[in-house]
Design goal:
about 120 residues; mainly alpha; about 50% helix; elongated
Amino acid sequence: MLVETLAFALIGLIVGAAALVSLPAYFPGGRALTAGTALVAALLGGVIMHFTLDGAFPGVSIAVSAIVSGLLTSVLARPDLAAGRLPAHRHHPHRVGGERHPHRAGGAHRRHRHA
């Protein structure tokens, strides 16, 4: 179990480092938070899987450790805050100046329809 625990910790550190190196702008929470989440997720996922399988399949435990670590680390990703990405708005941008709406006389902006 000691060797597996070290493998789980190593997997967590690798997943955390890979996330920070490959997409640093997606993780604004900080390096310690990202690496710590990956490490703890790998350890918990691996240990739970080890006890679930009674230690019979260490390869499966290691694979599940990597999957759980990757999934929980991806929860921290914030691609909407990455540099160079604009937030996706559902509404049209506000009109500047005296631009008139093509369907309304006088360019008046109405929020509600009156009967």
